[in-house]
Design goal:
The chain is an alpha+beta fold. About 20% of the residues lie in helices and about 25% in strands.
């Protein structure tokens, strides 16, 4: 990570932040610069500001430039749990611990590396680093993903995701008791004001809507089924923390590392339902939750059956 610092002079007073940094050649292009600002990689006097911020003489502006993404991605023979595959797409159960695509500091062992070794053709819309990737799951979130093998399938799936025609259901174990049977969390999400690797509910964020249904209560934990209406980064984890019921095993968003014997956050993409872009058939695919989540639920159920909380 490279950090560059700038101090506007009197002649820069009230110039927009993005225009000032473009004039100073702070990034290779205006679009790349805008992404840096949106991702919280630009700070003014230690604070994240919008592109429309008007700079003042003497402001200390720091711009963090991440390592460039690799220009090529090497195929790697990595076993994948394929649920379904045809000429236009494939559906798989992504395991815990697998990053979806290469990025800064991670160039191997990703889902994309594995897909390149398996598939002769993948859609190119995502570029060299994200071929075939229509949507993503966090590294330690397991479950169902669909991958596009050509651009037309990719575009149709992406459009259906945007128009909420794709149903994504997750199961999660959260800390604490949720008293209502059903609920909706409608709270905007944006980059955390201090930690750029995290997200947070914030007024200037993008709209995010999460629906949940309580499957089972254990007193100090609750098993919930979650349906996403939007697809913001870390959405379920952020929203559950926001209502005071963080996902168990998620230390980044209020859980406790290793609680209930979990290896990571107790969050699993259980099912994915969509209309196949080439056949028009409605398809639904499911994946079993990882073993540590099953074990955690077994412990909670046994404890409840025994009468202890």
């Amino acid at each position: 990570m490279e950090t560059r610092s700038f101090r506007p002079g009197p002649w820069d007073d009230q110039v927009r932040l993005d225009a000032y940094l473009a004039k100073e050649h702070a990034a290779p292009s205006r679009s790349f610069l805008r992404r840096l600002i949106d991702q919280g990689m630009v700070r003014v006097n230690g604070r994240h500001e919008k592109a429309s911020y008007r700079v003042r003489p003497g402001d200390l502006i720091s711009v963090s430039i991440p390592q460039p993404e690799p220009e090529t991605v090497e195929p790697e023979e990595i076993d994948l749990d394929i649920i379904y595959e045809d000429a236009g797409l494939l559906v798989l159960n992504k395991p815990r611990g697998m990053v979806v695509h290469p990025g800064a500091g991670r160039h191997s062992g990703t889902l994309v590396n594995a897909l390149l070794a398996r598939c002769k053709d993948l859609s190119g819309i995502g570029g060299v680093v994200r071929p075939g990737i229509v949507h993503r799951l966090d590294r330690d979130t397991s479950g169902v993903m669909v991958v596009a093998k050509n651009d037309s399938v990719h575009l149709r799936l992406a459009a259906d995701l945007a128009s909420r025609k794709v149903t994504r259901e997750y199961v999660a174990i959260v800390r604490g008791n949720i008293s209502e049977d059903d609920g909706v969390i409608d709270a905007p999400i944006g980059r955390h004001p201090v930690d750029r690797k995290r997200q947070a509910v914030r007024a200037d964020g993008r709209r995010a809507v999460t629906r949940f249904h309580v499957e089972q209560r254990f007193g100090d934990y609750t098993l919930v089924r979650v349906v996403l209406e939007t697809g913001r980064t870390h959405q379920i984890r952020v929203h559950m923390q926001y209502i005071g019921r963080p996902v168990a095993g998620d230390p980044i968003y209020g859980g406790v590392r290793g609680e209930l014997g979990l290896h990571a956050q107790a969050l699993h993409a259980e099912s994915l339902e969509f209309t196949h872009p080439e056949t028009g058939d409605r398809k639904r695919f499911e994946a079993p939750m990882p073993e540590d989540m099953k074990s955690a639920l077994a412990k909670l159920r046994a404890r409840r059956k025994g009468g202890s909380q």
